[in-house]
Amino acid sequence: MTTSRSVLLVAVSGPDGAGKSSLVRRLATLLGERGIPVVTTHCYGCFLCRRFPVPPRVGEEGEHGERWARRAADPERRGSLPRRAHAFLDATELAVRIAAARLAATARARGRQAVVVTDRGPLDGLVKFDLPVSSAAAGTFRRIAGRYGLTVLVETGPDTLLGRGWEEGAGSPAAWWARYRAWSVRLPRVARVDGERAPSLVAATTLDQILDVVRERTASDGMGEEAGGGPERGTDARPHVVVSIYDDADNPDYRGGGALVVGKVARRLADDFRVTVVTAGRRAGTEYRDGIRYVRLPVCRAGPRAGQLVFLTLLPFVARRIPHDLWLESFTPPFSTSFLPLATRAPVVGIDQGRSAEALWRRYHLPFFLVERLGLRCYRHIVAMNAADGSVIRRLSPRADVQVIANGVEPRLLDESRLGNGQFILFLGRIDTWVKGLDLLLDAYDRARPPLELLLAGSGTPAEERRLAALVAARTRGREPRIHWVGYAEEERKRQLLRDSAFLVVPSRHETFGLVALEGMSYGKPVLHFDLPALRWMRDGGDVAVPPFDVAALGERMDELARDEALRRGLGRRSALAAKHYTWDEMTGRYLALAHRLLDTPAPARRPRKRGTSWQTTR
Prior knowledge:
With 619 residues, this protein is an alpha/beta fold. The chain has helices at residues 20-33, 47-51, 81-109, 122-129, 136-145, 158-163, 173-184, 199-223, 257-269, 304-321, 357-364, 368-376, 387-396, 438-448, 462-474, 491-500, 515-522, 551-563, 565-579, 584-600, and strands at 7-13, 38-42, 114-119, 150-155, 190-194, 240-244, 274-281, 285-289, 292-298, 326-330, 348-352, 381-384, 401-404, 424-428, 453-457, 483-487, 501-506, 527-530, 543-546. It is built from 20 helices and 19 strands. An eight-stranded mixed β-sheet has the order 8-9-7-6-10-11-12-13, with helices on both faces. A six-stranded parallel β-sheet has the order 16-15-14-17-18-19, with helices on both faces.
């Protein structure tokens, strides 16, 4: 007999004009073609909404404009009694509609997994009434959202909505989108899809998300834990690759180069494999972007330092829960390794983007490196970013297959007219005063007083940002300060800073590659840095190296580069030519080749596992 768990609830949400109804129809057709029983229902508004499109006395007395919205200036208000009553009525009818749809799907399923797709859902109700999070009505919608296996939020730009007939009386599309994003992070299992793409691509991406959830539910019901022990692949027979990294592009405390690298690698692997990225977040949830599933572990609330420790602790347990054929683990400070190969029989590739135990030993005098060295011996496959780190890892883990795969950059045409030009000296990167050597940079700049101003771009933890602000304030003299901290730079702003800078300075005490240096080189900019072994890939590539941590030498070369435009022009041309050897296409292609080598090589049969990876995985 079909149980309630055999009916998957899927909501398609978004503002009017996002194309939800057409997407629901497409999904019903595509699911039906795959033999999955499907029921669709429209779940917007109660009978009052349908009878009275603009209900009287719903807004607060004296409120103008959006009659559905609570005043933003008073977020603690519970809303008027009519509005709260209306919200309860709306939620009740929504619950009745999905209950009826469940019964219809159960009748059609006959023991199979069925899907109910609702046009709109609890997320739309929460956005519509926008009551306080703590209100009982909001709690009712959130409980209903807990019954859904997936909520698909179709993201469409305000301009597109206006072009599709958005009514001005409804208010600003941007304001509605702000509400959707605010509420979506409070609900479980919300996946965002790009509604700006062609309808067929949107439907295909959403279909993959639904099928992934169907497979997971089937596996958790025991179908994937029988004698074979392998994950149920359904219609997608491709191997499943999981990539784990603590850093994420949406993490305000880091947003480092590691997240960019993993994003590039994951998109390349998605050409041939099913890909899941496990990362950190403030709340647990699943999101789909570019055909890749992102699973967030709720560890960021513990803080940036403790969050890393919790992430490392949880990773082996997550590996036991997510079926996979290959796992790529980006090392996470302070211990770097998480002993992940001990938790899975599938191949694990360690990616050395954050092996910083030695640097933390010098900084805090805590022996993190002892755990790191022990953990490295568990790995049979490790990727290093540079040759120096590759040699160290081979010494620490002699049995490991260590490959050096550098980072990449987008190819750019060299503008000869801009070589040697620039308005300022640029530091670009994560704000971490000790690791990134910002104290050394400010001392060198203060001592040399070069003719160009110094711009610092980046963000970090609140404590690190306060530390940097104090250092900058202590060195600011006169009415016109020459050191400017501009904060986090979005992608377009970052490109502008790189184009307009005279040269980059990388004063780090510890680096694994220096992705920002490569980005600067691609714009034809010289790079001034300490002569660290991890940065010697830049040798003779338009870089200027000074003895490690020699503040006087750093200041002297900074002043020389700032005054000599011809020198910058010659070095910049060499930088641009060197950067052409580091393209994302080539570098991510090496990861793809490594994944194929590990997954395509036949392996002897092994005793199947009850949980986690498939018995078909290879070593």
